């Protein structure tokens, strides 16, 4: 019978998830946005990433801080953010944040690098009608 082992594994995963949620909340409170972005991306939480982006943009010189944080993300994290912003861009409440992140990516990534992103073709096709 492996039921007990599976229950323990599920409980461990749930506890780990709760710990990460608390860490994310603490990072946002401490205004450690780069780590918060990385953690939200690793948890695959588009809405949380959007919340972090909004918090950064509310800061004085928010655009500058957003650029600094987005530029420091790894390529796979930037790909995830690109996928998230495609969805954000379709909603008028979130389109400004999506455009700010997209502007940063376009400004700081060479076109050849952008073409290497996974899902770039579908992202561009989805962004065009709303941008």
Automatic annotation (TrEMBL):
It comes from the Eukaryota. It is found in: Nucleus, Nucleolus. InterPro entries: Utp13_C. GO terms for biological process: endonucleolytic cleavage in 5'-ETS of tricistronic rRNA transcript (SSU-rRNA, 5.8S rRNA, LSU-rRNA); endonucleolytic cleavage to generate mature 5'-end of SSU-rRNA from (SSU-rRNA, 5.8S rRNA, LSU-rRNA). The keyword Repeat applies. Residues 21-131 form the U3 small nucleolar RNA-associated protein 13 C-terminal domain. This is TBL3 protein. The gene is Tbl3.
């Amino acid at each position: 019978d492996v039921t007990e082992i599976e229950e323990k594994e599920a409980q461990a995963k749930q506890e780990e998830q709760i710990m990460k949620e608390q860490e994310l909340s603490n990072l946002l409170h401490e205004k450690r946005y780069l780590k918060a972005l990385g953690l939200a991306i690793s948890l695959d939480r588009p809405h949380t990433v959007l919340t972090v982006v909004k918090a950064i943009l509310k800061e004085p010189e928010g655009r500058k801080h957003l650029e600094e944080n987005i530029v420091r993300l790894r390529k796979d994290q930037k790909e995830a953010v690109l996928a998230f912003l495609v969805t954000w861009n379709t909603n008028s409440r979130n389109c400004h944040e999506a455009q700010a992140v997209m502007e940063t990516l376009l400004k700081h990534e060479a076109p050849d690098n952008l073409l290497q992103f996974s899902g770039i073709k579908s992202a561009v096709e989805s962004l065009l009608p709303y941008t």
